[in-house]
Structures are given as structure tokens and as C-alpha cells.
Amino acid sequence: MKTKLTPLKSIRRKCINCSVGSLAEVRLCPVEQCFLWYYRMGKRPINSPQSDRITLPVNIETHTKVKENLKHSAQMEKLC
User: Fold this and answer.
1) Does residue 1 belong to any structural domain of this protein?
2) pTM of the entire structure?
3) Per-residue b/e over 48-67, b at no fewer than 16 CB within 10 Å?
4) Alpha-carbon distance 4 to 1, whole Å?
5) pLDDT in tens for each of the 80 residues of the chain?
6) Is residue 43 part of a domain?
7) Which of 19, 62, 66, 80 has the least CB density, counted as fewest CB within 10 Å?
């Protein structure tokens, strides 16, 4: 039985998937415009103003795309 992923672990998995499995590439990711960039290491950023929540100013279109991408990644993992 698989355990449910936390949002931060899901983001980490998405970033690893995006960088073709390379943990070094996740760390060196140049795409700072990405909504997930701050959380790519699977942890909340130290300089986050609210360390207990993931909050970034983002428009609804970007939020919807990120949510769909994470859902798609979870579905793909189930198939593997």
C-alpha cells in the first residue's frame, strides 16, 4: 500500500521528473519563473515569509496548470 504524498514531496517528485531524474539538475534548475522553483528541494524556503504554508502570488491560470501537471504526474506514477 502506497502512502499519500505531501504537497512538498509531490513538488519534489515533479521537479525530479522534469529534470529527467537528475537530482543535480533539480538543484541547479535555471527556471526561476517556475511556480515550483522555490520548493524544488522538497522543503520550504528558509526565507519564506510564512514558513507554515506554501504561498506565492500567482494568477489562476498558472495555478490551474500546475495543479493539472501534478495530477498528471501522480497518474503516470500509478501506471509505472
Assistant:
1) no
2) 0.56
3) eeeeeebeeeeeeeeeeebe
4) 10
5) 567 888 899 999 999 999 999 999 999 999 988 888 888 998 877 755 544 555 555 566 776 777 787 777 776 666 65
6) yes
7) 80
Is residue 73 in a domain? yes
Q: How many domains does the chain have?
A: 1
Contact of 29 with 14, CB cutoff 8 Å: no
Domain span at residue 41 reads 7-79
47 within domain boundaries: yes
Task: Provide the grid cell at 45.
Answer: 524556503
List, for residues 17-31, the tens digit of each pLDDT value. 999 999 999 999 999
